[in-house]
């Protein structure tokens, strides 16, 4: 176990211990300031394609600056690092480049203005800024261009609080950082990492603050106005259509999923509002459709605030754009190849594995596109000069070709697979629906006491099983049943309400004992339901396999639409919008959360564009079809609660844990060997301790939380705007104390890191081999209203029944290609606790806490390895078993089934 060592950093920390901000730098009191040993090091250049970040160990500290001389003025050199970008002003494209070269030639590339931290004490008014033009001074390295200028700072200017930047070029530029050198006691480094618009597009100057963070009440007097104005600008006024260079964060409902102007079958209801509660998305302000005045028209460009986007940089191969390309350019080619080759010839001697072992000849074309976008899938066989579509063997299949058929593996994956969020403890018997029997038929379950006891006979009675917490359930009955009749109107899919009951064996493994499938009354037919159990004869064994295929399709849908999309990607977007609207970039909580929001808005915009849209990938692959995203709204309405999004509360809500102060994490698990919960709780605690240290430093007392108007506005907006349909719920945590804040922030960071990693990066491992997790069930059970002919056909060739129930060839190919991309870590992935933000590194106490945080995460790697080697933990070890590594913090690039990134970026 981890030792609790953080406490020594966790005592309430007063800002009094820090370098006093109010000392004017010119006062000659340098002896009182302390400086980092790193302060003279140069900013390093991390050789990344785009997401170039601050690198630890090469820090430039923003320190109190005190000139060595007592002359009237200090001369300082500013170096500005600008990244070369494809679309920015350094690109070779277009006439604007010529004008920008001339601008560079005349030394008027960038106008910088130093902003004094404090107002003039004599007059109480703002000091004049100190301007200078920076001109191009050559390349810093292959990715960066350097600009330089000189400032002469008068004696009475005081400390520098910020820099205003005006881009004199005709095109935007990506500003990485600004370094001010010439102070005898160290440089000031201002981290920017931001797109700066051309002044010809927008005359407003950009402001970049130094790395010292301030809650509003402690803002240096000279920065108060800038702090407020920056937030006002980012809020916008709620009108107009957003353009690419905007930095405005605002809310809207999900009304751009449908495309009613293109085809009335592509009309979809608005998600967000009373009828279909939903989190809010970023407002784009596009015009409404002609057919539906409530829907927004779709466009090839979907706005996200400028700094939320991936950049176009040479060599960038992993991004939302890759996914878009895969969907639009690659999938059709793959599908044709798969069909032409008979890839899914189930009657061959090697059914279902051909695509992994031998591959499919793609011929000569279109090799370049395919190979570049899906290098893992498309192999070039050079000696034969051919391109071959060869899917990487998913980990599950690689370790055990028969795993998908096994009941014990079915049970294990509810605890250690890619959807560990659904299993619940059974606390009441008999099982019963809460739906209206008048509409949905009798509420009683077909899973009877007798049926269950047949399965657990000799071990215990059902009464004992409930009492001893031995029964668990995947319950998709009440959520799915209202959609069954609607979905059955669609072509090529079928749906049931389902319940799957598991028994916890003495060795902590789950044995599935019964599956119930239910169809509500409709079209003149009464309710139909049937309970299946692992068979004792050939027919019932086949029916059990078929029932399992249905439940797996339900679980696949719930995983993708709810556990993954709705609870992580979708629920997080309002946090990001509120953070940028209400917390200044100089606010410590903004700086704590910022790395956890990287690229989420862009990946979500892409999802609206090509994944969850009407007729898009999700609708074409999952059982609920066109109702898929609407279904995620139902789950949001009935299940989502902020106070249960943190891991401990989630486990308690499902009966998977109960509070017990005598055990580690204060939680006793209902299933001791629950790999997701075992590793997740350690990660949760590590995050919470880091957040505790961070919050305690800036909020040593509750009054500071209560009086922080930005923080309170932020929390209010998350509740009443971002999650507006839940605004009146009584369960929202109140925000009055540092402890409240720690709880809220830990929950948000857990969702963006641990939760998302657990449900995202195992997708190809487990669902890449579709028999293990079919996304759709296409045919009804042979026992539902059978005809003599259909039953005979089933008896004659039962395997045909299951193959026609599984996804089609095209669906399976799409799933594999998409999951391969979605499960991928990019080479520049940013993992939790790997690197500090510049502002954290510049605050000694925060930096020390971060190093402990980082150390504990590295320790977690070893803990997980040790668990995976423990033969007593049968849900993560054993013959053919895929070890549970999804919450190991770090990973190399690619599809690895491990690694916890800071943010939801894929
Ligand atoms: Fe994801």
Automatic annotation (TrEMBL):
Q: Does the keyword Nucleotide-binding apply?
A: no
* InterPro entries in alphabetical order: LipOase, LipOase_C, LipOase_C_sf, LipOase_CS, LipOase_plant, Lipoxy_PLAT/LH2, Lipoxygenase_dom_3, PLAT/LH2_dom
Which keywords has UniProt assigned to this entry? Chloroplast, Dioxygenase, Fatty acid biosynthesis, Fatty acid metabolism, Iron, Lipid biosynthesis, Lipid metabolism, Metal-binding, Oxidoreductase, Oxylipin biosynthesis, Plastid, Transit peptide
Q: Where is the composition biased (Basic and acidic residues)?
A: 262-278
Alphabetized PANTHER family for the sequence: LIPOXYGENASE
Q: Which GO terms describe its molecular function?
A: linoleate 13S-lipoxygenase activity; metal ion binding
Q: What is this protein called?
A: Lipoxygenase
In which pathway does this enzyme or protein participate?
Answer: Lipid metabolism; oxylipin biosynthesis
Q: Which residues form the Lipoxygenase domain?
A: 213-906
SUPFAM superfamilies named in the record: Lipase/lipooxygenase domain (PLAT/LH2 domain), Lipoxigenase
């Amino acid at each position: 176990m981890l030792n609790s060592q953080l406490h020594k950093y966790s005592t309430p920390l007063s800002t009094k211990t820090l370098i006093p901000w109010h000392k004017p730098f010119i006062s000659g009191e340098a002896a009182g300031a302390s400086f980092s040993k790193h302060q003279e090091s140069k900013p390093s250049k991390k050789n990344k394609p785009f997401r170039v970040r601050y690198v630890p160990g090469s820090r430039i500290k923003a320190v109190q600056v005190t000139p060595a001389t007592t002359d009237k003025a200090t001369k300082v050199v500013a170096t500005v690092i600008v990244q070369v970008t494809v679309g920015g002003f350094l690109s070779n494209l277009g006439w604007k480049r010529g004008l920008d070269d001339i601008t560079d030639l005349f030394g008027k590339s960038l106008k910088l203005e130093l902003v004094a931290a404090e107002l003039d004490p004599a007059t109480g008014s703002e000091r004049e800024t100190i301007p200078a033009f920076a001109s191009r001074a050559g390349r810093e390295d292959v990715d960066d261009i350097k600009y330089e200028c000189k400032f002469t700072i008068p004696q009475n200017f005081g400390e520098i609080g910020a820099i205003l930047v005006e881009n004199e070029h005709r095109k935007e530029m990506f500003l990485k950082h600004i370094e001010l050198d010439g102070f005898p006691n160290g440089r000031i480094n201002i981290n920017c990492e931001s797109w700066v618009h051309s002044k010809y597009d927008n005359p407003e100057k950009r402001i970049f603050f130094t790395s010292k963070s301030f809650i509003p009440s402690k803002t240096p007097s000279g920065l108060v106005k800038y702090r407020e104005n920056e937030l006002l600008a980012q809020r916008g006024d709620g009108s107009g259509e957003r353009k690419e260079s905007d930095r405005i964060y605002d809310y809207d409902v999900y009304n751009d999923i449908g495309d009613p102007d293109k085809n009335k079958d592509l009309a979809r209801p608005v998600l967000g509002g009373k009828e279909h509660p939903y989190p809010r998305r970023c407002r784009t302000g596009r015009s409404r459709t002609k057919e539906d005045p409530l829907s927004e028209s779709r466009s090839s460009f979907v706005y996200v605030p400028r700094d939320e986007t991936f950049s176009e940089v040479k060599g960038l191969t992993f991004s939302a754009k890759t996914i878009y390309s895969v969907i639009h350019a690659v999938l059709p080619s793959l599908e044709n190849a798969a069909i032409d080759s008979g890839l899914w010839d189930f009657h061959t001697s090697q059914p279902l594995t051909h695509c992994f072992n031998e591959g499919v000849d793609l011929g000569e074309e279109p090799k370049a596109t395919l190979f570049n976008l899906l290098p893992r899938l498309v192999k070039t066989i050079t000696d034969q000069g051919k391109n071959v579509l060869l899917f990487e063997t998913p980990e599950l299949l690689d370790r055990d070709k028969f795993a998908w058929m096994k009941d014990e593996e079915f049970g294990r994956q509810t605890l250690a697979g890619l959807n560990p969020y659904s299993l619940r403890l059974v606390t009441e018997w008999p099982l019963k629906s809460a739906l209206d029997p008048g509409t949905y038929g009798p509420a009683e379950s077909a899973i009877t006491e007798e049926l269950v006891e047949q399965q657990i006979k000799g071990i215990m009675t059902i009464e004992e099983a409930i009492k001893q917490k031995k029964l668990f359930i995947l319950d998709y009955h009440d959520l799915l049943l209202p959609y069954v009749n609607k979905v059955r109107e669609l072509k090529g899919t079928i749906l049931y309400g389902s319940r799957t009951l598991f028994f916890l064996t003495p060795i902590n493994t789950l044995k599935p004992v019964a599956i119930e499938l239910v169809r509500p009354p409709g079209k003149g037919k009464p309710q139909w339901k049937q309970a299946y159990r692992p068979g004792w004869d050939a027919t019932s064994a086949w029916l059990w396999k078929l029932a399992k295929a249905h439940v797996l399709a339900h679980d696949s849908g719930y995983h993708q639409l709810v556990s993954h999309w709705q609870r992580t990607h979708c629920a997080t977007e309002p946090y990001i919008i509120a953070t940028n609207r209400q917390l200044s970039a100089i606010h410590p909580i903004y700086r704590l959360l910022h790395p956890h929001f990287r690229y989420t808005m862009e990946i979500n915009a892409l999802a609206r564009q090509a994944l969850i849209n009407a007729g898009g990938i999700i609708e074409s692959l999952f059982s609920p079809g066109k109702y898929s995203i609407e279904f995620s709204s139902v789950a949001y309405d009935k299940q989502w609660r902020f106070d249960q999004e943190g891991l401990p509360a989630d486990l308690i809500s499902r009966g998977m844990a109960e509070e017990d102060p005598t055990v580690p994490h204060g939680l006793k698990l209902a299933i001791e060997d629950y790999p997701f919960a075992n590793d997740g709780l350690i990660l949760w605690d590590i995050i919470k301790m880091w957040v505790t240290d961070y919050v305690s430093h800036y909020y040593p007392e509750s009054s500071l939380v209560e009086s922080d108007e930005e923080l309170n506005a932020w929390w209010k907006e998350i509740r009443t705007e971002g999650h507006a349909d839940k605004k009146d719920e009584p369960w929202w945590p109140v925000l009055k104390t540092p402890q409240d804040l720690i709880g809220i922030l830990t929950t948000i960071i857990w969702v963006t890191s641990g939760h998302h990693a657990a449900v995202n990066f195992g997708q190809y491992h487990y669902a890449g081999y579709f028999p293990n997790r079919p996304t759709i069930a296409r045919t009804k059970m042979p026992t539902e209203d059978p005809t003599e002919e259909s039953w005979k056909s089933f008896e004659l060739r039962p395997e045909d029944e299951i193959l026609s129930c599984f996804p089609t060839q095209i669906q399976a190919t799409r799933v594999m290609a998409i999951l391969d991309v979605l499960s991928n870590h990019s080479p520049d992935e940013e993992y939790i606790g790997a690197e500090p933000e510049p502002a954290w590194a510049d605050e000694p106490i925060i930096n020390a806490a971060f190093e402990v945080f980082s150390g504990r995460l590295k320790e977690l790697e070893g803990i997980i390895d040790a668990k995976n080697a423990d033969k007593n933990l049968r849900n993560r070890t054993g013959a053919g078993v895929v070890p549970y590594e999804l919450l190991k913090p770090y990973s190399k690039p690619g599809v690895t089934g491990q690694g916890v990134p800071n943010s939801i970026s894929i």
